[in-house]
Amino acid sequence: MDVFNIVLPLKNEYLTTVRLTTGGVLAVAEFDVDTTEDFKVCVTESLLILRRNGFTSAQIKFSVGETLSCEIKGVDRGAEKEEGVEDEISYALLNALLGEVAFERDGNGVTAVRFEA
């Protein structure tokens, strides 16, 4: 199994880079275009959930084998938590595109998101 890690600040200007990187990882793993697009959306939505839960950075870990799994953890919690309906939309989107998504939480909200294709 190959593992690919990225740590990045949760700023809008890096989200495009993450989408391109995610697409590259899925291309190397020979996933189809539809799966790749769904996975890119899910990675982006997971990062947005973590940012809205007060994190300023995140670690993305792709594990490539017979399946592709992704774990996205909040790294530096230092920003104020944003309340709103955006998280509910993100949760619904993740569950609709992937079926099974695991959310890790603490007393302050979501700390990690895990899923696979």
Structure description:
With 117 residues, this protein is an alpha+beta fold. It has one domain (2-116): Histidine kinase-like ATPase, C-terminal domain (Heat Shock Protein 90). 43% of the residues lie in helices and 32% in strands. It is built from 3 helices and 5 strands. It has helices spanning 12-28, 33-52, 86-98, and strands at residues 2-9, 57-64, 68-74, 101-106, 109-116. A hairpin with a 3-residue loop joins strand 2 and strand 3 (68-74). The protein is globular and about 40 Å long. The two termini are 15 Å apart. 24% of the residues are buried.
Summarize the structure.
The protein is an alpha+beta fold. Helix content is 43%, strand content 32%.
Task: Give keywords.
117 residues; single chain; Heat Shock Protein 90; alpha+beta; 43% helix; 5-stranded antiparallel β-sheet; 5 strands
Name given to the CATH architecture: 2-Layer Sandwich
Structural class: alpha+beta
SS field, number of helical segments? 3
Radius of gyration from the CA trace? 13 Å
Q: What is the string of SSEs from the N terminus onward?
A: EHHEEHEE
Distance between the termini: 15 Å
Order of strands in the sheet with the most strands? 1-2-3-5-4
What is the helix fraction of residues, given as a range?
Answer: 40-55%
Looking at CATH, which topology would you report?
Heat Shock Protein 90
Q: Choose one word for the global shape.
A: globular
CATH class: Alpha Beta
* Oligomer type: single chain
Poorly predicted spans: none
Q: What's the number of extended β-strand segments? A: 5
